[in-house]
Amino acid sequence: MKYKAMFIAASTFVFAAASPSTAQEESGRWEMPTNGDLSAMLDCLEESGKTIISAHRGGPSPGLPENAIPTMDAVLHALPAMMEIDVAQSPDGMHYLMHDRTLDRTTTGSGAVTDVPWTKVSTLKLVDEAGWMTPYFVPTFAETLTWAKGRAVLQVDFKRTADFATVVSEIRAADMVQGVILIAYTKAQAMSLYELAPDMLISYSVNAPGDLDEIVAAGIPAANIVAFTGTGTARPDLYSVLEAADVEVIFGTLGRPDRSLDGVFARFGTDERYAELGEGGVDVIATDRPRAAAAALAKADRLPTRGICGITKGGE
User: Which residue(s) pair with 287 in the sheet?
Assistant: First the structure.
């Protein structure tokens, strides 16, 4: 009875949340090109004075769980955005979207990702951030790629069970080479990804100019790097160095609400800070508040509009 009531409530909420707002210029979904030159598109956005949002874990909200295709689709009905997703592998070899090491928090199931086969995971419903069961199932990575093609660039965060080679192979099979940014947390990971995918962009942590110099010296061209510059303090000085090297900047306002900049902006009513980050040199804002960030960017004329750099609106 508990889950049944939650299912009904969540279903009602999701229908409303996914519907386009009457305040929008036009109905439909925002779409980003995924079959051209991703680096050139990012350059175009920078040159146009626009900042793109990356919706952390696909932009969950009440009734819309993290790492779920309906959640990401709802975000794209509200704003143009990239999608950051988490990819894990089941013990029987299926890659699917999952952030945690266990299934307990985000699904109706339980157990470690390393222990539960896909045949079981595929039957589970996703749970939203409040713990309510939703109508949605756990998506495979392949399904997510199919959905994203022609719609959204994916930032792919590899969980410890994920296999780099298999994930890259699935990206190629889906013709999404120019629709992904692969996330590397270490130099070794970046080198492994570059060896497998020299034609894909890699998000790599750059906290000082020397970090970029080091990875370039190791053999990865700067043209393949998108610099993730942390989540704590904005660094316009670093951003100017990266801009001179033609490397796009990602900065994260995400994280625990009691510690993150997202939380600070929400508590103090200072959403204009999102636009200030863009004006200071941030090209991609990774956030848990994509709608609020988009509203602030739009107010400052920094949110991409229809027709800018191949971004369109109107698909259903």
Answer: 55
